[in-house]
Amino acid sequence: MSEFFETVKDITSAAMKKADTTCKAARLKLSKSALNKLLAGQYIELGKTVYNMCKSGDEDSQEIVSITAQIDGTRRRIAALDRRIDDVLGLVKCPKCGAVLKIKNAYCSVCGKKLTTEQESIEENENEMNIITEER
To answer: What is the pLDDT of residue 46?
Structure first.
């Protein structure tokens, strides 16, 4: 009987963990949706600004630079959310082909590229920095 309750406890714990993961991913996806709407509005604003500049013959692009900076910031925030969603769901993107894979995969199932672990990536970045420093 004790084994039965342990099994039920383990199943319940796994279900709660899965539900928590799903909830976190849903919240992040909702935030991403709001940012995508903001981005669409920013693109419309940019289009209107360019149109008005062309109609008026005004060549002052300061407003365009400002809107472009806002768009770049929004796109960075969306990319960061994408990475957080992948982290929560245990996914990685292949650096070669961009396929979305489970984090535990050693190789990409689409193109066959060896996927590096986080520690290997840190070591590669340190090696690159050492090479750059030595070249100077």
So the answer is: 95
Q: What is the predicted pLDDT for the residue at 118?
A: 52
Neighbours of 105 (CB within 10 A): 14
Query: Alpha carbon of 57 to those of 27, 46, 66, 68, 96: distances in Å?
Result: 45, 16, 19, 20, 45
Distance of CA 60 to the CA centre of its chain: 34
Helices marked H in the chain: 2-56, 62-89, 118-135
Inter-CA distances, 86 with 39, 50, 103, Å: 21, 36, 9
- What is this structure's pTM? 0.69
HSE, side-chain direction, 13 A CA sphere, residue 37: 5
* Both structure tokens of 12: 């319940």
Instruction: Flag residues of the chain having pLDDT under 70.
Output: 117-136
